[in-house]
Amino acid sequence: MVPQMTRLMIIFGVLVLLYFVVRWIAKPESFYWFGHYRGEALAEAVAQPLRYAPVGDCADCHDEEARQNRSGPHRSISCQTCHDAGMDHVNDPDQSNILHPEPSTLCILCHSANHSRPRGFPQVVVADHAEGMECNDCHMTHNPGEFQ
Amino acid sequence: MILRPEPTIGSCHSCMTPADSGQESSPNLREREKSEDRRRFLKRTSAALIGGAVLATGADLFAAKRPPAVGDKWSIHSWGMVIDVEKCIGCGRCVHACKIENNVPEEFFRTWIERYRYFDGEVVVDSPHGGAHGFAGEDDKRVPDKAFFVPKLCNACEKSPCVQVCPVGATFETPDGAVLVDKEYCIGCRYCVQACPYGCRYIHPETKVADKCTFCYHRIHKGQLPACVEACPTGARMFGDLKDKNSEVSRFLRENKTFVLKPHLNTYPKVFYHGIDSEVR
Fold first, then answer.
1. Which chain A residues are within 8 Å of B60, Cβ to Cβ?
2. Which of A37, B6, B70, B186 has the greatest number of CB atoms lying within 10 Å of its CB?
3. B213 forms bridges with which residues in the sheet?
4. Residues of A in contact with B233 (CB under 8 A)
């Protein structure tokens, strides 16, 4: 073998070695567990804490409200649709860490007249329906089909 | 004495520039031969190098072991969502819930609602604040011929353009069908933001890495529904396991006409729409 060949073989060997060293340093342990990504990222994504409490947790304490809700037209609606995320409240049942929404701003999100809503969905022009009144002046909050 | 290039080396003769013709040719040719030799040599060496690296990676790939505790449980589901546009009332509670659940910053969206209105051939599409505060008022005095709301989110494509362009493997399709971003590994290069045909990604202003809908991966792995599905008052959003024939989504897909967005892109989304129009993309 010619001498310059030996030199090149050595360089080649060093480069291959270098590749493995860099790879060993740079590749996270869980890479290729499932595919071309860090497998541990799955567990990290799952570890994110809940903000919206599990369904059914509300009724554990608020059975009266849950009963009212179940007997009215809003029976299919989750408590947290109106009351927002409830995990803090479940962990620490304080009166102040759950939202008590203003009916005048909340109800119209769904029920103000809008051409884009599906036909047949109950909608009102607020000015014609109850000018200057709060929704819960007449409607029961947890069962709006019933009246006060 | 000046040597003229010999006519026998015809190929070199033809490629010589006028400047070359005046110079001594023999050293020039030797130089050329040498450089050709070197080039051939470099070619072979680099081929061997690349070959070696590929082989080594291949060997490493087969050697990569799965975590013993996890096994195959991640792949027993394939999550998907069905959106029944005919039930959507545009209240924006899904957008609101998503923002709370996932700490989505103001004016960025993992999910949002678009309003489509058709006025005498003209299509008006808008999404004020992503629909987070609802569409309480009608800002147009005209009565549309037809109008509807379309909630949008990550389509969790089976062949995701965003996954294909990521240069570091920081975004990926999980074995159970969600598309996630590895926040620790993302370098914030924005390729995926550009590549997503549905506009579902953004760069988080605080972490400076890509962020997107995860199908609330943390919730579905704790037996809960995604926050948007949980908050939807009309059941317009359905979520479940596409592999389970008895799930709500599977049943809906079996019994109804559904459509995916931009099917011509062959991204194979796992978010299906019922009741949309061709204008919705």
1. 23
2. A37
3. none
4. 74, 76-78, 81, 110
Beta-carbon separation of B180 and A41 below 8 A: yes
Would residue B280 count as lying in a domain?
Answer: no
CA–CA separation, A113 vs B105, rounded Å?
A: 30
**What are the structural domain ranges in chain A?**
3-46, 57-137
* Residue B69 in domain: no
Decide if B70 is inside a domain: no
pLDDT digits (tens, 9 = 90+) for B149-190: 999 999 999 999 999 999 999 999 999 999 999 999 999 999
Pairs of CB atoms within 8 A across A/B = 162
A95-122 as b/e, with b when 16 or more CB fall inside 10 Å? eeebeeeebeebbbbbbbbbbbbbeeee
Pick from B2, B44, B42, B8: nearest CA to B24: B2
Q: Is residue B281 part of a domain?
A: no
pLDDT, tens only, B50-77: 777 667 666 655 555 555 445 457 788 9
More confident residue, A137 or B57: A137
CB contact under 8 A, B172 and A31: no
Question: What is the structure's pLDDT at B2?
Answer: 53
Q: Which domain holds residue B32?
A: 10-63
Residue B56 pLDDT: 64
Q: Judge whether B141 is closer than 8 Å to chain A, CB to CB.
A: no
Note the ipTM here.
0.88
DSSP β-bridge partners for residue A80: none
The four Cα atoms B227, B231, B236, B239 give a dihedral, to 10 degrees, of 30
Tell me which of B36, B63, B90 is where a domain ends: B63
For residue B93, the chain A residue with the least C-alpha distance is: A81
B113-140, pLDDT tens digit by residue? 999 999 998 999 999 999 999 987 677 7
User: What is each CA distance from A106 to A33, A81, B85, B96, B151, in whole angstroms?
Assistant: 47, 10, 22, 12, 20
